[in-house]
TrEMBL record:
Upper classification of the organism: Eukaryota, Fungi, Dikarya, Ascomycota, Pezizomycotina
Keywords assigned by UniProt, alphabetized: Membrane, Mitochondrion, Transmembrane, Transmembrane helix
InterPro entries noted in UniProt: Homing_endonucl (IPR027434), LAGLIDADG_dom (IPR004860), LAGLIDADG_Endonuclease (IPR051289)
Chain's gene name: orf251
Parts of the chain that traverse the membrane: 12-31
The protein, known as: Homing endonuclease LAGLIDADG domain-containing protein
UniProt keyword annotation of Mitochondrion present: yes
Gene source species: Ophiocordyceps sinensis
One Pfam short name: LAGLIDADG_1
């Protein structure tokens, strides 16, 4: 009896070890992370949950970042490198950032109540980019389509992969992480292009869910069933309702411009 229990526990441990290995190999960390930063992050991180995030959402997110975000790579006073990703929107669109934050469970939202143009920002730090967001984009073969964002992404990934610490160590030429389409028409053939164009053109729309809401009563039970990975709790559901409440432009009009 005792031997059976030991064998059962051993199999469980081995099984968990294999699962962790598979998840880490599918969503590998980019570069090295300081032990202290990793300990804090692992308290809230489960890579298995992130693998299940739909590529449609990531395509939409890449378009939103292309239009309203940037990857900041700056030099500290001592010559070291800081990296973070920021999405900045008008305060009226804060529900969009809240929804993204509820899905990714990454970053921190800050409000800037400027009288002329109040804004809100979602800032995702270096560790979160290394562990989750950049690996997710790479795993799903989703990338940015504007030249500025492409260059920022390529540089950030190069720095992280090669564990470059000092700003002066950054080379002048960086290779592309992804092979880009050769002509404009090929861009429209990308599997994520329709979702990208929605994110790029409209900061307060989410592909798929918008069409769903136009055809079905938007109840928590129905949304949780059909979009359970994105609306896993009532908080994310209420964020979604905020986004859809003020939506004016039918999503079909956006898709009609795509061949």
């Amino acid at each position: 009896m005792g031997q059976d229990v030991v064998e059962s526990k051993t199999k469980t441990i081995v099984g968990l070890g294999i699962l962790i290995f598979v998840l880490l190999s599918i969503l590998p960390t980019i570069g090295e992370i300081h032990d202290n930063a990793l300990k804090k992050f692992h308290k809230v991180m489960n890579k298995e949950d992130y693998i299940s995030i739909p590529s449609s959402f990531l395509g939409f997110l890449s378009g939103l970042i292309d239009g309203d975000g940037y990857i900041q790579i700056t030099k500290t006073g001592k010559g070291f490198i800081t990296i973070k990703l920021t999405i900045s929107l008008h305060l009226d669109d804060i529900s969009t950032l809240e929804y993204i934050n509820s899905v990714l469970k990454l970053g921190k939202i800050t409000i800037y109540k400027d009288l002329k143009s109040p804004t809100c920002r979602l800032v995702i730090n270096r560790t979160e980019l290394q562990e989750i967001l950049f690996p997710l984009f790479i795993h799903n073969k989703i990338f940015f389509l504007t030249e500025t964002r492409i260059n920022q992404f390529n540089l950030a990934v190069y720095i992280l992969k090669n564990n470059i610490k000092k700003f002066e160590e950054i080379p002048s030429k960086i290779d592309n992480v992804f092979k880009l389409p050769e002509n404009p028409f090929d861009y429209t053939l990308l599997s994520f292009f329709k979702n990208w164009i929605v994110g790029f053109a409209c900061s307060n729309l989410y592909p798929g869910v918008v069409e769903f809401s136009q055809q079905n009563p938007l109840t928590y039970k129905r949304v949780k069933k059909d979009f359970k990975k994105l609306c896993s709790n009532r908080d994310s559901y209420y964020y979604l309702k905020k986004i859809l409440k003020n939506k004016q432009t039918p999503i079909k009009k956006i898709f009609d411009i795509i061949p």
